[in-house]
Amino acid sequence: MRKPVVNLRILPSLPHWLIPSAILRINIIYLWRHRRLPDLLDPRRFSELVQWRKIHDRNPLMPIMADKIAVKQQVDQILGSGWTIPTYWSGRHLPAQPSWPYPFILKASHGCNQNIICRDQSDWQKARKRAAKWLRAPYGLWLDEWAYRDIPRNYIVEPYLGTASAVPIDYKIYVFAGAAAFVQVHLNRYSNHRWILFDRQWNQLSMMGDSDLPPAPKNLDKILDGAEKITADFDFARIDFYEIDGEPKFGEVTFYPGSGLDPFDPPDLDSTIGALWLAGLGSRPESKYLNSQWQPKTA
Predict the structure, then answer these.
(1) Which of 48, 207, 226, 292 is most exposed by smallest CB count within 10 Å?
(2) Cα–Cα distance between 107 and 115 in angstroms, integer?
(3) What is the pTM (predicted TM-score) of this model?
């Protein structure tokens, strides 16, 4: 049975200032979502390690790579030209009328799940009203996603890469200590949204009852290599790509996939993926950006 993907970032939330303790907020939200408390002293599951990162990881490269405007320059330097999606416009104040062609997609540059596809003038007027609230406050406060908080709040406009009936398939690469391990494929994001997890050999790992499996992208090896190069400085990151007209295109970098609150199907994937993250942490020198003395153990 397919489980729908819940967008936790648009659900009603407690104002973060009502619960001053980040640890308490994280415990409450994790308990609500997973029906158990996270082990933040000795995290083992992937979902627990995401919560641990929220509290302890202060790598200054994370806000740069999570910024949808700044990251394009980084990717161009790492992978060369042709990987990033062109930017029509970026700025803090939306014009009354767009000077770029339809269709396009309007995004907030400093957060997740803040985007609108505009196909005509009526869409643009609705988008301007809806997007106004995106810049009113820093992103990531209620879910304690530190990397987003200090990113400059701006808009970015890019060409829409999908068709009239479907958005492009989203390939999300899980990279641990520079090694790409999994590809999470998101399908039908605006209708029957679901995701399926594959290993790098395109063996299915999740939702085993699914019969209409997507084929591997033509440029899978190139995408995996690009993801590994982009994440060389991190123990874990997820890199999103599309394949447009037979060519790979970079999407974004995510350090808190699903905010660590999406359940896995089957559930033991949470521990399996967590073990890879722990191995990556254990194989690297102690980071000066971690405000914790915890030492991960893979055994």
Answers:
(1) 292
(2) 4
(3) 0.90
Estimate to the nearest angstrom the gap between the alpha carbon of 17 and the chain centroid.
Answer: 25
Report pLDDT digits (tens) over 158-188.
999 988 878 899 999 999 999 999 999 987 6
Give the burial class of 263: count Cβ atoms within 10 A of its Cβ; 0-12 exposed, 13-18 middle, 19 or more buried: middle
Q: What is the 3-state secondary structure (H, E, C) of 54-65?
A: HHHECCCHHHHH
Amino acid identity, residue 65?
A: M
CA distance 241 to 136: 29
In 3-state terms, what secondary structure has residue 11?
coil
Locate 281 and state its tokens. Answer: 């942490």
Return the CA Rg of the chain. 19
Cα distances (angstroms) measured from residue 66 to each of 61, 238, 284: 9, 11, 22
Tokens describing residue 210: 């699914």
DSSP structure class, residue 299: -
